Amino acid sequence: MKELLKQLWTIPNMLTILRIIAVPFIMWCTLDPSTYIECGEYTFPIIGLVIMIVAASTDLVDGYIARRFNQGSQLGEMIDPLADKLMHCAAVLSLVIIGYVHWAFIVILLAKEGTMVLGGIYMAGDSKNIKANYMGKVASATLSLAIVMSYFHAFWADKVFYLDWIVLGIGLVLTYMAFFNYLKQAIGIIKGILARKKAAKEGTDVSEAGVSCANADTATEESADTTDGAENGSESDEDKSADEEN
Predict the structure, then answer these.
(1) How far is it, in rounded angstroms, from Cα 231 to Cα 55?
(2) What distance in Å separates the CA atoms of residue 8 and residue 16, rounded to the nearest whole number?
(3) Averaged over 124-134, what is the pLDDT?
(4) What is the C-alpha to C-alpha distance for residues 71 and 7, in angstroms, rounded to an integer?
(5) Beta bridge partners of 38
(6) What is the rounded CA–CA span in Å between residue 65 and residue 60?
(7) pTM, to two decimals
(8) Share of the chain above pLDDT 70, in %
(9) 239 exposed, middle or buried (CB, 10 Å; 0-12, 13-18, 19+)?
(10) Helix-strand-coil percent breakdown of the chain, rounded to 5?
(11) Domains of the chain
(12) Closest among 94, 106, 162, 171 to 137, alpha carbons compared
């Protein structure tokens, strides 16, 4: 724990923390109509969008700093993807609440993200063995573009037949394609974890069995010694009786 707290104070991890802190502000400025800005005949939650874009841009900066100055860390590997997932889910959820995005999109997104978070927790340190793939990057970029477009949903709904929803749907499909790619790798890692746990459990059982056998052998030896002692005692008594008769 102390080591993780020490890792917190690196520049890349502090930027990641800022992205997480930005999440409630993104939601607030997306949900509160008083923060909206008029653009011609439409009114959009642009301030919420600006906060999200600025926060998301720190992901590029912290990645560069981590690579350039060798400041990558275990904590960073844990919280960096978490920050991205929180921002995506918070933005889409906010857009669903104000009616800019259909509720089915957030259900599909949360199902996938929730599964990945739980899987990551279960695999813990082993999750670093999962290799990133090109599809994942494309899916994330497409999903980000769709979310930005959805902030102007009123325009797309009137002019270009819900283009933002179409791009969002494509982004979710790509996201699930990348997810199944990760899942194949995760299954192998999970099998390894289960095998290690099984081996450890069996090793414990064998040790306990060995202790029990050792205790049983000791008890048997003690019982034999007691029996021998009793027999020797009986023989001595008989010898004494014979001597007295003589």
Answers:
(1) 89
(2) 10
(3) 67
(4) 9
(5) 43
(6) 9
(7) 0.74
(8) 76
(9) exposed
(10) 85, 0, 10
(11) 2-200 (1.20.120)
(12) 171
